[in-house]
Protein backbone atom coordinates (compact mmCIF):
# COMPACT_ATOMS: atom_id res chain seq x y z
CA UNK A 1 0.00 0.00 0.00
CA UNK A 2 1.27 3.46 -0.77
CA UNK A 3 2.85 5.15 2.21
CA UNK A 4 1.82 8.67 3.18
CA UNK A 5 4.68 11.02 3.99
CA UNK A 6 4.39 13.75 6.60
CA UNK A 7 5.42 16.40 4.13
CA UNK A 8 2.66 15.34 1.75
CA UNK A 9 -0.10 15.83 4.34
CA UNK A 10 -0.61 19.47 3.33
CA UNK A 11 -0.56 18.74 -0.41
CA UNK A 12 -3.76 20.54 -1.21
CA UNK A 13 -2.82 23.63 0.75
CA UNK A 14 0.20 23.99 -1.54
CA UNK A 15 -1.49 22.89 -4.72
CA UNK A 16 -3.02 26.02 -6.26
CA UNK A 17 -0.43 27.86 -8.37
CA UNK A 18 -0.51 31.66 -8.12
CA UNK A 19 -1.57 33.80 -11.08
CA UNK A 20 1.97 35.12 -11.65
CA UNK A 21 3.51 31.69 -12.13
CA UNK A 22 6.25 31.71 -14.75
CA UNK A 23 6.10 29.75 -17.99
CA UNK A 24 8.29 26.89 -16.82
CA UNK A 25 5.41 24.70 -15.64
CA UNK A 26 5.53 22.23 -18.50
CA UNK A 27 9.30 21.78 -18.25
CA UNK A 28 9.13 21.32 -14.50
CA UNK A 29 6.49 18.64 -14.87
CA UNK A 30 8.54 16.81 -17.46
CA UNK A 31 11.48 16.56 -15.08
CA UNK A 32 9.60 16.10 -11.81
CA UNK A 33 10.37 12.40 -11.67
CA UNK A 34 12.68 9.97 -13.44
CA UNK A 35 10.19 7.14 -13.14
CA UNK A 36 7.49 6.28 -15.62
CA UNK A 37 4.84 3.63 -15.34
CA UNK A 38 4.02 1.48 -18.33
CA UNK A 39 0.45 0.92 -19.48
CA UNK A 40 0.10 -2.26 -17.48
CA UNK A 41 1.38 -0.71 -14.27
CA UNK A 42 3.80 -3.63 -13.76
CA UNK A 43 7.18 -1.98 -14.07
CA UNK A 44 8.80 1.42 -13.90
CA UNK A 45 11.86 2.48 -15.84
CA UNK A 46 14.12 5.41 -15.08
CA UNK A 47 15.75 7.60 -17.72
CA UNK A 48 18.81 5.34 -17.79
CA UNK A 49 16.75 2.29 -18.68
CA UNK A 50 17.07 0.61 -15.26
CA UNK A 51 14.02 -1.39 -14.30
CA UNK A 52 12.47 -1.48 -10.88
CA UNK A 53 9.26 -2.70 -9.26
CA UNK A 54 6.00 -0.84 -9.66
CA UNK A 55 5.33 2.11 -7.39
CA UNK A 56 3.79 0.27 -4.49
CA UNK A 57 5.39 1.71 -1.42
CA UNK A 58 5.31 5.25 -2.83
CA UNK A 59 7.90 7.99 -2.73
CA UNK A 60 10.19 8.41 0.21
CA UNK A 61 9.67 11.42 2.38
CA UNK A 62 12.71 13.12 0.95
CA UNK A 63 11.38 12.81 -2.60
CA UNK A 64 8.45 15.17 -2.00
CA UNK A 65 9.62 18.58 -3.13
CA UNK A 66 8.31 21.39 -0.92
CA UNK A 67 8.84 23.81 -3.79
CA UNK A 68 6.58 21.88 -6.14
CA UNK A 69 3.61 24.04 -5.18
CA UNK A 70 4.28 27.65 -4.28
CA UNK A 71 1.10 28.86 -2.65
CA UNK A 72 -1.23 27.80 0.13
CA UNK A 73 -4.46 26.47 -1.43
CA UNK A 74 -6.65 27.54 1.46
CA UNK A 75 -5.20 31.06 1.47
CA UNK A 76 -5.78 31.42 -2.25
CA UNK A 77 -9.45 30.57 -1.89
CA UNK A 78 -10.32 32.38 1.31
CA UNK A 79 -12.66 35.39 1.54
CA UNK A 80 -14.22 34.66 -1.84
CA UNK A 81 -17.95 35.26 -2.10
CA UNK A 82 -19.99 32.44 -3.57
CA UNK A 83 -22.05 33.63 -6.55
CA UNK A 84 -25.60 32.52 -7.18
CA UNK A 85 -25.91 29.55 -9.47
CA UNK A 86 -27.75 30.39 -12.66
CA UNK A 87 -30.35 28.26 -14.34
CA UNK A 88 -29.14 25.91 -17.01
CA UNK A 89 -30.59 26.11 -20.49
CA UNK A 90 -31.18 23.55 -23.17
CA UNK A 91 -28.73 23.47 -26.04
CA UNK A 92 -30.10 23.75 -29.57
CA UNK A 93 -29.29 20.73 -31.70
CA UNK A 94 -28.06 21.23 -35.23
CA UNK A 95 -30.37 19.34 -37.59
CA UNK A 96 -27.83 19.19 -40.41
CA UNK A 97 -24.39 19.03 -38.78
CA UNK A 98 -21.69 20.73 -40.80
CA UNK A 99 -18.91 18.41 -41.86
CA UNK A 100 -21.05 15.26 -41.65
CA UNK A 101 -22.64 15.49 -45.10
CA UNK A 102 -20.61 12.60 -46.51
CA UNK A 103 -20.62 10.32 -43.47
CA UNK A 104 -22.74 7.22 -42.97
CA UNK A 105 -25.60 8.41 -40.79
CA UNK A 106 -29.26 9.19 -41.25
CA UNK A 107 -31.41 11.80 -39.56
CA UNK A 108 -34.20 10.48 -37.42
CA UNK A 109 -36.59 13.17 -38.63
CA UNK A 110 -37.53 14.22 -35.10
CA UNK A 111 -36.18 16.90 -32.81
CA UNK A 112 -37.30 15.00 -29.74
CA UNK A 113 -35.37 12.32 -27.84
CA UNK A 114 -36.48 8.74 -28.47
CA UNK A 115 -37.46 7.91 -24.89
CA UNK A 116 -40.20 8.66 -22.38
CA UNK A 117 -40.53 12.39 -21.65
CA UNK A 118 -41.86 11.97 -18.10
CA UNK A 119 -39.22 12.85 -15.51
CA UNK A 120 -38.91 9.97 -13.08
CA UNK A 121 -37.74 11.90 -10.02
CA UNK A 122 -37.53 15.37 -8.56
CA UNK A 123 -33.79 15.30 -7.92
CA UNK A 124 -32.04 18.59 -8.77
CA UNK A 125 -30.35 18.18 -12.13
CA UNK A 126 -27.81 19.90 -14.34
CA UNK A 127 -26.67 19.87 -17.96
CA UNK A 128 -23.24 18.70 -19.00
CA UNK A 129 -22.94 21.51 -21.53
CA UNK A 130 -22.25 19.18 -24.47
CA UNK A 131 -24.46 19.83 -27.46
CA UNK A 132 -26.63 16.86 -28.35
CA UNK A 133 -25.54 14.74 -25.39
CA UNK A 134 -27.69 16.70 -22.96
CA UNK A 135 -30.70 15.90 -25.14
CA UNK A 136 -29.95 12.20 -24.77
CA UNK A 137 -30.39 12.52 -20.99
CA UNK A 138 -33.89 13.04 -19.67
CA UNK A 139 -33.88 16.14 -17.51
CA UNK A 140 -30.12 16.21 -16.99
CA UNK A 141 -27.62 14.57 -14.64
CA UNK A 142 -28.68 14.45 -10.98
CA UNK A 143 -26.63 16.96 -9.01
CA UNK A 144 -23.77 15.61 -6.87
CA UNK A 145 -23.37 12.61 -9.15
CA UNK A 146 -19.99 11.01 -9.72
CA UNK A 147 -19.41 10.68 -13.47
CA UNK A 148 -16.75 8.99 -15.58
CA UNK A 149 -15.92 9.61 -19.24
CA UNK A 150 -14.03 6.57 -20.57
CA UNK A 151 -12.17 6.32 -23.83
CA UNK A 152 -8.89 5.55 -25.54
CA UNK A 153 -6.32 8.18 -26.50
CA UNK A 154 -7.68 10.91 -28.74
CA UNK A 155 -11.38 10.40 -28.07
CA UNK A 156 -11.77 13.75 -26.28
CA UNK A 157 -11.91 12.82 -22.60
CA UNK A 158 -10.06 15.94 -21.45
CA UNK A 159 -12.16 18.13 -23.74
CA UNK A 160 -15.27 16.51 -22.24
CA UNK A 161 -14.08 17.59 -18.78
CA UNK A 162 -13.16 21.14 -19.81
CA UNK A 163 -16.52 21.59 -21.53
CA UNK A 164 -18.35 20.27 -18.45
CA UNK A 165 -16.52 22.78 -16.24
CA UNK A 166 -16.97 25.66 -18.65
CA UNK A 167 -20.74 25.18 -18.83
CA UNK A 168 -20.98 25.44 -15.07
CA UNK A 169 -18.77 28.53 -14.97
CA UNK A 170 -20.94 30.18 -17.60
CA UNK A 171 -23.98 29.52 -15.38
CA UNK A 172 -22.33 31.31 -12.44
CA UNK A 173 -21.08 28.15 -10.71
CA UNK A 174 -17.57 27.60 -9.42
CA UNK A 175 -15.31 24.77 -10.46
CA UNK A 176 -12.17 22.85 -9.53
CA UNK A 177 -9.93 21.04 -12.02
CA UNK A 178 -7.33 18.58 -10.69
CA UNK A 179 -5.00 17.48 -13.46
CA UNK A 180 -2.46 14.68 -13.18
CA UNK A 181 -1.43 14.82 -16.84
CA UNK A 182 -0.85 18.46 -17.73
CA UNK A 183 0.48 21.59 -16.08
CA UNK A 184 -1.89 24.26 -14.82
CA UNK A 185 -0.82 26.67 -17.56
CA UNK A 186 -1.39 24.13 -20.30
CA UNK A 187 -4.90 23.32 -19.05
CA UNK A 188 -5.82 27.01 -19.01
CA UNK A 189 -4.27 27.62 -22.43
CA UNK A 190 -6.03 24.60 -23.93
CA UNK A 191 -9.37 25.80 -22.60
CA UNK A 192 -8.74 29.36 -23.79
CA UNK A 193 -8.02 28.10 -27.33
CA UNK A 194 -11.50 26.55 -27.33
CA UNK A 195 -13.07 29.85 -26.35
CA UNK A 196 -13.46 28.98 -22.66
CA UNK A 197 -12.39 31.94 -20.51
CA UNK A 198 -10.54 29.83 -17.94
CA UNK A 199 -7.86 32.50 -17.54
CA UNK A 200 -10.49 35.05 -16.53
CA UNK A 201 -12.38 32.65 -14.28
CA UNK A 202 -9.13 31.69 -12.52
CA UNK A 203 -8.12 35.34 -12.09
CA UNK A 204 -11.54 36.16 -10.64
CA UNK A 205 -11.43 33.26 -8.18
CA UNK A 206 -14.25 31.32 -9.86
CA UNK A 207 -12.01 28.45 -10.97
CA UNK A 208 -9.19 26.55 -9.25
CA UNK A 209 -6.86 24.59 -11.53
CA UNK A 210 -4.55 22.30 -9.55
CA UNK A 211 -1.76 20.29 -11.16
CA UNK A 212 -0.45 17.39 -9.09
CA UNK A 213 2.19 14.79 -9.83
CA UNK A 214 0.41 11.39 -9.74
CA UNK A 215 3.11 9.88 -7.49
CA UNK A 216 2.74 12.70 -4.97
CA UNK A 217 -1.04 12.40 -5.12
CA UNK A 218 -0.85 8.65 -4.45
CA UNK A 219 1.38 9.30 -1.45
CA UNK A 220 -0.94 12.06 -0.24
CA UNK A 221 -4.25 10.34 -0.93
CA UNK A 222 -5.14 9.89 2.74
CA UNK A 223 -4.85 13.63 3.43
CA UNK A 224 -6.62 14.45 0.15
CA UNK A 225 -9.60 12.34 1.17
CA UNK A 226 -9.78 14.10 4.51
CA UNK A 227 -9.27 17.64 3.23
CA UNK A 228 -11.06 17.67 -0.11
CA UNK A 229 -14.69 17.88 1.10
CA UNK A 230 -14.07 20.86 3.36
CA UNK A 231 -11.79 22.65 0.89
CA UNK A 232 -14.27 22.27 -1.95
CA UNK A 233 -17.08 23.43 0.33
CA UNK A 234 -15.08 26.48 1.44
CA UNK A 235 -14.36 27.38 -2.19
CA UNK A 236 -18.03 27.00 -3.07
CA UNK A 237 -17.41 24.70 -6.04
CA UNK A 238 -20.32 22.80 -7.54
CA UNK A 239 -18.33 21.01 -10.31
CA UNK A 240 -15.02 19.16 -10.13
CA UNK A 241 -12.94 17.37 -12.77
CA UNK A 242 -10.11 14.87 -12.17
CA UNK A 243 -8.04 14.14 -15.29
CA UNK A 244 -7.24 11.28 -15.17
CA UNK A 245 -8.06 8.65 -12.58
CA UNK A 246 -6.13 6.03 -14.59
CA UNK A 247 -2.81 7.67 -13.72
CA UNK A 248 -3.73 7.49 -10.06
CA UNK A 249 -4.70 3.82 -10.37
CA UNK A 250 -1.34 3.03 -11.95
CA UNK A 251 0.43 4.03 -8.74
CA UNK A 252 -0.82 0.86 -7.01
CA UNK A 253 0.62 -2.50 -7.99
CA UNK A 254 -1.52 -4.52 -5.59
CA UNK A 255 -5.04 -5.00 -6.91
CA UNK A 256 -6.70 -4.88 -3.48
CA UNK A 257 -4.84 -1.68 -2.53
CA UNK A 258 -5.81 -0.09 -5.83
CA UNK A 259 -9.47 -0.98 -5.40
CA UNK A 260 -9.63 0.18 -1.77
CA UNK A 261 -7.83 3.48 -2.40
CA UNK A 262 -9.93 4.40 -5.42
CA UNK A 263 -13.11 3.42 -3.58
CA UNK A 264 -12.22 5.65 -0.63
CA UNK A 265 -11.30 8.52 -2.95
CA UNK A 266 -14.59 8.20 -4.83
CA UNK A 267 -16.42 8.28 -1.50
CA UNK A 268 -14.61 11.51 -0.55
CA UNK A 269 -15.76 13.11 -3.80
CA UNK A 270 -19.34 12.18 -2.98
CA UNK A 271 -18.91 13.69 0.48
CA UNK A 272 -17.59 16.90 -1.11
CA UNK A 273 -21.09 17.60 -2.41
CA UNK A 274 -20.01 18.41 -5.97
CA UNK A 275 -20.90 16.95 -9.31
CA UNK A 276 -17.56 15.32 -10.12
CA UNK A 277 -16.30 14.08 -13.47
CA UNK A 278 -13.42 11.61 -13.74
CA UNK A 279 -11.69 10.74 -17.00
CA UNK A 280 -10.39 7.21 -17.49
CA UNK A 281 -8.49 5.19 -20.06
CA UNK A 282 -10.31 2.09 -21.28
CA UNK A 283 -9.17 -1.50 -21.19
CA UNK A 284 -7.07 -2.65 -24.16
CA UNK A 285 -9.53 -5.52 -24.61
CA UNK A 286 -12.81 -3.58 -24.73
CA UNK A 287 -13.95 0.06 -24.93
CA UNK A 288 -16.76 -0.67 -22.46
CA UNK A 289 -14.56 -1.16 -19.38
CA UNK A 290 -12.01 1.07 -17.70
CA UNK A 291 -8.36 0.05 -17.66
CA UNK A 292 -8.63 -1.52 -14.20
CA UNK A 293 -12.38 -2.23 -14.17
CA UNK A 294 -13.05 -0.21 -11.02
CA UNK A 295 -14.41 3.28 -11.66
CA UNK A 296 -17.46 2.25 -13.70
CA UNK A 297 -18.80 0.42 -10.63
CA UNK A 298 -18.13 3.33 -8.26
CA UNK A 299 -19.69 6.06 -10.39
CA UNK A 300 -23.30 7.10 -10.96
CA UNK A 301 -22.96 7.79 -14.67
CA UNK A 302 -20.71 6.28 -17.35
CA UNK A 303 -20.06 7.76 -20.80
CA UNK A 304 -18.15 5.64 -23.32
CA UNK A 305 -16.23 7.48 -26.03
CA UNK A 306 -14.85 5.28 -28.78
CA UNK A 307 -13.64 4.95 -32.33
CA UNK A 308 -15.90 3.24 -34.87
CA UNK A 309 -13.91 1.72 -37.72
CA UNK A 310 -16.04 0.43 -40.64
CA UNK A 311 -15.26 -2.90 -42.29
CA UNK A 312 -14.49 -1.19 -45.60
CA UNK A 313 -11.67 0.81 -43.90
CA UNK A 314 -13.19 4.14 -44.75
CA UNK A 315 -12.86 7.14 -42.42
CA UNK A 316 -12.82 6.32 -38.70
CA UNK A 317 -15.68 7.91 -36.77
CA UNK A 318 -16.11 8.87 -33.15
CA UNK A 319 -19.18 7.62 -31.28
CA UNK A 320 -20.51 8.10 -27.76
CA UNK A 321 -22.76 5.84 -25.71
CA UNK A 322 -24.34 6.31 -22.29
CA UNK A 323 -23.64 3.12 -20.38
CA UNK A 324 -25.59 4.12 -17.27
CA UNK A 325 -27.02 7.07 -15.34
CA UNK A 326 -28.52 6.37 -11.96
CA UNK A 327 -31.89 8.01 -11.29
CA UNK A 328 -32.28 9.23 -14.87
CA UNK A 329 -33.75 7.88 -18.08
CA UNK A 330 -31.48 8.19 -21.09
CA UNK A 331 -31.03 7.11 -24.66
CA UNK A 332 -29.06 3.88 -25.09
CA UNK A 333 -28.21 4.49 -28.71
CA UNK A 334 -24.67 5.02 -29.95
CA UNK A 335 -24.40 8.48 -31.51
CA UNK A 336 -21.71 10.09 -33.67
CA UNK A 337 -19.79 13.10 -32.40
CA UNK A 338 -16.87 15.22 -33.47
CA UNK A 339 -14.27 17.32 -31.69
CA UNK A 340 -14.09 20.84 -33.05
CA UNK A 341 -12.28 24.02 -32.03
CA UNK A 342 -15.28 24.74 -29.81
CA UNK A 343 -15.33 21.35 -28.08
CA UNK A 344 -17.45 18.22 -28.47
CA UNK A 345 -20.68 18.14 -30.49
CA UNK A 346 -22.89 15.03 -30.34
CA UNK A 347 -25.30 14.53 -33.20
CA UNK A 348 -28.27 13.17 -31.32
CA UNK A 349 -30.47 13.07 -34.41
CA UNK A 350 -27.99 10.98 -36.40
CA UNK A 351 -27.60 7.22 -36.49
CA UNK A 352 -24.45 5.34 -37.37
CA UNK A 353 -24.70 2.55 -39.95
UniProtKB/TrEMBL annotation:
SUPFAM superfamilies: P-loop containing nucleoside triphosphate hydrolases (SSF52540). Residues 1-117 are annotated as: Disordered. One of its GO terms (molecular function) is ATP binding. Residues 124-353 form the KaiC domain. InterPro entries: Circ_KaiC_arc, KaiC-like_dom, KaiC_dom, P-loop_NTPase. Residues 40-50, 58-73, 89-104 have a biased composition (Acidic residues). Keywords: ATP-binding, Nucleotide-binding. This is KaiC domain-containing protein. It comes from Natrinema halophilum.
Amino acid sequence: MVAVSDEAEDWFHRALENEERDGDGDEARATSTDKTVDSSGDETVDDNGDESGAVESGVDEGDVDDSLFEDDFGAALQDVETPAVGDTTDTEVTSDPEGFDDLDFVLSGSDEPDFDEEIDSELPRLDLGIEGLDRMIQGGIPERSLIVAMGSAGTGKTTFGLQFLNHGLEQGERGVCITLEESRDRVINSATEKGYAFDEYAAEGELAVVDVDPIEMANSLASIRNELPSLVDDFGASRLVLDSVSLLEMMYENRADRRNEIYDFARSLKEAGVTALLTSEVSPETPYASRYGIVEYLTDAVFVLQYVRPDDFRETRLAIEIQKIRDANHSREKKPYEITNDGISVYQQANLF
